[in-house]
């Protein structure tokens, strides 16, 4: 994970946010967001990993930073599950590195935009068995949530904030809402926010994220 961007806070870190970018972006994409959040959340380290560059079938086979290959959109997104599992494994490694640095698991948050959000939802609710501070799911969906899947008591305690644009032309609003509904039906402490935006991030959303993180870090 040598290409991970780590933004240290001005004071010793007491919490960490591991934040995954979207398809075709890079680890610097959310650097301005992380730096802005550090201005109001002292003591939070931001860990921004880089997706590997590989061909993406949906985009004509062009190579770009991608957490997994997207093979088709309809009727449901068909993805390369082995690559998704590989990316989730990278997130698990980052969680363990933060724990080794002295950050308790209960103060480690996973965040992801679009494809990155799909990875963190999969990691938090299908791969990671321990505590987490919470999950931020931005403009994303949950390709591996299934109707027959149940959650353990620890996973049910992961707080989640789902944020989505009502005019999202890349990941339809309905897909984001479906992930929220799935979590709510299984007793997860999940909140939903949507905004008059497309596949992007807006200031109102960032304010909601800052408030949500501050509430959980105050516990």
From TrEMBL:
Record-linked InterPro entries: AB_hydrolase_fold, LYPA1-2/EST-like, PLipase/COase/thioEstase
Gene3D superfamilies xref list: alpha/beta hydrolase
Entry superkingdom: Bacteria
GO molecular function, one term: hydrolase activity
Record flagged with keyword RNA-binding: no
Keywords: Hydrolase
Classification via Pfam families: Abhydrolase_2
Keyword Hydrolase annotated: yes
All residue ranges annotated as the Phospholipase/carboxylesterase/thioesterase domain in the record: 4-213
Protein family: Belongs to the AB hydrolase superfamily. AB hydrolase 2 family.
PANTHER family on file: LYSOPHOSPHOLIPASE-LIKE PROTEIN 1, LYSOPHOSPHOLIPASE-RELATED
Protein name: Phospholipase/carboxylesterase
């Amino acid at each position: 994970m040598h290409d991970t961007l780590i933004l240290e806070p001005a004071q010793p870190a007491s919490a960490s946010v591991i934040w995954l970018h979207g398809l075709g972006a890079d680890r610097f994409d959310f650097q301005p967001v992380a730096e802005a959040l550090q201005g109001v959340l002292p003591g939070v380290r931001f860990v921004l990993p880089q997706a590997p560059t590989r061909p993406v079938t949906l985009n004509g086979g062009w190579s770009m930073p991608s957490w997994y290959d997207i093979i088709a959109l309809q009727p449901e997104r068909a993805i390369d599950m082995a690559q998704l599992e590989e990316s989730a494994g990278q997130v698990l490694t980052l969680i363990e590195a933060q724990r080794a640095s002295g950050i308790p698991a209960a103060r480690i948050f996973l965040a992801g935009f679009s494809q990155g959000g799909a990875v963190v939802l999969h990691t938090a609710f299908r791969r990671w068995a321990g505590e987490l501070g919470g999950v931020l799911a931005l403009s994303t969906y949950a390709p591996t949530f299934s109707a027959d899947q149940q959650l353990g008591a620890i996973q049910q305690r992961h707080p989640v904030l789902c944020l989505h644009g009502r005019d999202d032309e890349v990941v339809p609003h309905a897909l984001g809402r479906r992930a929220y509904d799935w979590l709510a039906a299984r007793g997860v402490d999940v909140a939903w926010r949507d905004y008059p935006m497309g596949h992007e991030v807006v200031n109102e959303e960032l304010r909601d994220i800052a408030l949500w993180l501050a509430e959980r870090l105050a516990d």
